Structures
1.
Amino acid sequence: MSKAVIAKDLNIYYGSFLAVEGVNIDIKPKTVTALIGPSGCGKSTFLRSINRMHEVIPGARVEGSLTLDGKELYGAGVDPVGVRRQIGMVFQRPNPFPTMSIYENVIAGQKLNNKRAGKKVTDELVERSLRGANLWNEVKDRLDKPGSGLSGGQQQRLCIARAIAVQPDVLLMDEPCSALDPISTLAIEDLINELKTDYTIVIVTHNMQQAARVSDFTGFFNIEGTGKPGHLVEIDETKTIFSQPKQKATEDYVSGRFG
Amino acid sequence: MTIETDPNRTRTDAELAEEALVPMPLVRGELPRWAPWAILVASLVVVGVILGVTSGFSIPLTLVLGAVLFAVATFVISRVVEGGRKATDRLVTIVVTVAFLLALVPLVSVLVTVIQNGVARFDGAFFSNSMRGVVGEGGGGYHAIIGTLIITALAAVISIPVGILTAIYLVEYGARSRLARAITFFVDVMTGIPSIVAGLFAFAFFALFLGPGIRFGFGGAVALSILMIPVVVRSTEEMLKIVPNELREAAFALGTPKWRTILKVVIPTSIAGIASGVTLAIARVIGETAPLLIIAGLTTGVNLNPFSGRMTTLPVFAYNSYAAPGVPREPFIDRAWTSALVLILLVLVLNLLARLVAKLFAPKTR
């Protein structure tokens, strides 16, 4: 169920502005890939292009090739909605649906798409997803309460449960811990470690310790200056990136001597 | 040679810096809590007595001059006791409160007058009798109440779907396209058109198809929708805009098509605001007189069919009873007041409904 994502010479545009240039990346199944780099270098843009979420912004488009297990994601006739059903996403700020209960939030993917299943099947799915997100024990007695009543860390885990409830092949995480305290962050990092047995995970983070802790591979994005496109400087096994990177820029960034 | 020291000369930067370094005292004089009330009563008494002695006592003048004296006295006393900052605070508080009370005066006055005059005919007969065959006393506004409800309901049936769908187009699909900007512009213009123009439009429009002199309830509903649609569009648009984009993205990321996202995430999140906006739009048009006078006309009997025959509404009934009373005048004037009272009550009920709806639909947090 987890699949490989391969980008070849991927250019990402907002209108005529080239935001990210020439990304070549090979993300293997059942691995955690962390994307690090300074703000505005295009790592989130690249992440959002993987499940075609960046198209939500008017004028955004890509050139080049991006494949999921060999299938072109930007090919003619590919429905972005179909792509997003296979590639789930967790956002920077927890965003549970305020009109839905915890239970409904978990099955939002099914509910919003009018997939009906029996009560028993749905109950099992909710429990499995919440257990998968390490949230079951905390919320099992108040599943009918609104999701927005949970703490920030719990809300984020609820969003992860919601994302894995649709059983995607790939899970994208856009700075999932940046709004959370250290304890909730630890809970999510543990969760990422467990999830990688089933999913391909790509995580954008500003926290290099986090990248070092959770990821198998790390990609470093950089930008030459304002107005210039961001690009992938190098990608390698995490321990290589943090100990002996090939590029000077990477070494400067991971050792904190950036800029 | 003398050195002149001007007390008002601008202080030098060095002196200002020195002043800033002096720590502010933590303890300062403070007026007791009852002081403002005491000053208020004293000001009113002083002004009242002075007026009584000189030009004769009058309540409005006492209130106005008393408020001025109260503001000045509070400012001076507070400045002496508490210092400049608190004095300014108290002065601004008084100004704001007076402005609020001033705004309340016409509202309360209208309400009290309408209730006083309208309660005389606020009886069973008013709600069960029409004006058919009534020349003097008796009769009622039953036909007008029915007319108001039918025409307003029809207007709502036309305006709410058109208005909400327009707003959805503007916010969710149009974005910043030229068409969307043009629609926004014309909606803004339409909110400002005089209501008589809407009536004339409906009249001219239906006269083209159904012949001159056409008058019927549905025409009135069309005229009212022209006034109502822009209000619905604007309020719905504002409500849709405040739905966080993160929720739309969350739904998209779950593989939800756009239309389902709008239907199941965006609308439910903003339904409370939309509902109260719609109710306020209804309240806005329910009291329209001019357009209905033209296109819905006037009749003394009950007409339940909006597609044929004239139809009276409460505002038109009130206007006509007052403008063209029979002999004797009093029963007509009384009925006009009662119509106004019923209209106010209808709007009141609508507003309460809006609050209830907003409360029921609002996203819950616990």
Note: The two ends of chain B are 80 Å apart (CA to CA).
2.
Amino acid sequence: METLRFTYSGGLPVGNQAAATLVGVVGSGNLEILVERQSLAGACEVEVITAAIGFGTIWQSVLDDFFARHGLADIRISINDVGATPAVVSLRLDQAIASFLAGPQ
Amino acid sequence: MSSYYEASARERLQGVLDPASFEEIMPPGERVVSPHLRQLDTPAAFDDGIVVGFGLLSGHKVLVAAQEGGFMGGAVGEVHGAKLVGLLERARDEKPAAVLLLVESGGVRLHEANAGLIAVSEIMRAVLALRGAGVPVLVLDGGAFGCFGGMSIVAKLCDAVIISEEGRLGLSGPEVIETAGGVEEFDSRDRALVWRTVGGKHRYLLRDAMILVADRIPAFRQAAIDCLSLRPDLSLAALEAEHALLASRMERFGACKDAVDIWRHLGIADPAGLPLLEADEFIAATHDKRA
Amino acid sequence: MDAQSLLSRLFPDGFEIQADGLFFSGKGTTRGIEVAVIGSIDAAAIGIELAFQMAGAVLDIVRLEPERPILLLVDTTGQRLTRRDELLGINAYMAHLAKCLELARNQGHKIIGLVYSQAVSGGFLASSLLSDRCYALPEAEVRVMNLPAMARITKIPLERLEQLSQSSPVFAPGVENYRKMGAIADIWQGDLAACLIDALAQDSKDDNRRRLGAERQGRTLAEKVAERVRRGAR
């Protein structure tokens, strides 16, 4: 298991209706993503706990692209990953943010 | 997402309960995870594979739990089990209209062996105490991992099992039986055999499942609503009746080699054809021939 | 210890047992108290017939022997692993036994379990673990599964499981681990009749296993988590 941390800044502020959201499942080839509001002086913090060791640069690349698409401020993203492919990770990140921003259903 | 089988635990809850009525207790943000998985280099889930909370079912307050089969096969560990027991005890305090257990589990989580086994036992006692207090407990069974191990005993402690044609309910999984007794005893790769033996249709015919539904979330929802009128009965008379039914089952079917033999004994005209029928046709053909 | 010796140590005032294959039942007397006994021998695999027999014995006690305490002396290697048991719904037979014991409990029968030889997995769940309080002899064997089988199924190396067993009661078989985790109230040694008398004198209707597990530090989260879910505002 490996824990990776990334920090981004310059993201857009989040509306009041945004609510903590969980998407995905911790199963083989899959991952779960928890998105929460947190006061971080405008930063976005990401923590990835992954069973697939040695993919730090790929996570960096996927998260950089993701932040460029959906850069948000004062949020915390926590991930439990079991070897999901970059494509699956990107998809889930987009789902998570969409759900987070939409607020309680 | 209409298929119950394909849906996640959270999606099932959203679909079974009244729209937007679900509120989670101890949500994943609280990060109450298993303390035992890290040392085994095994990933943890923020909710330890079970979602608990409350909501409305046709306007009635219910407490609910849904196991996530995708995480460790929905198996019960220390935290997972404690969330479920806490929910059942909360129901004893609050006396909702019912408790819904969306079960999908292989039973005890081997990674937490002893803690999981004891948790399942505590769940059994809690279900019985809750029903003794007058609250009906309903089981919904239709996920990929089925309802096996200790959770299958829990399921039969409840007021009703609502199962789909995809659902399975059994104690020891087919692979375990095959490992113990060889492929002649149980060919675990024979899917048709598995579903004849422990699948929803067979359980419906034996009356171990009260209701059979198609693999659709709205069908599960409606069946649960229909079961809201059930009242737990753990009286001597009820258990004597159950004892007689179980005696009769052994007597009538104890020598049957396969489920098809049982179905033939039940007077079903084309037993081999049953697995091919859709849920509605199946129920029409068999509802008056159950054991 | 075999069932006969065990019974004479538990019941110095005498006992009367009928055996039927792997199943036995009857009563024993100690210090003037008559206790109903239900049990199994020879590491019985519990299938539909044995579960049914035990349930029947419980119903007989409820009908015919009001408030008599019940002692479960079940020796089992777990559930019977056959296609037939699955076909006929062994989980339902075990649940039926559990419901009968709950009925007995609600009717005022104390239910004491004593693991005297083996208690494994589903067999354990469907018997001794259903008692108000479960006890064990020091030489008894209690487990979910043996470590090599667990290693095979979980794909975790056996050496790792064995190593972790030293520091954590969670995986390793053994009465002491189960005592630490709260499932076994106490280990009985020496004067077994006295141990039984003490157990019978205790108030035992509620499930105290999580509290014991927390006190003994064998299960450090179960009690806390359950309480939080039970009482939490949300």
Note: The longest strand of chain B covers residues 50-57.
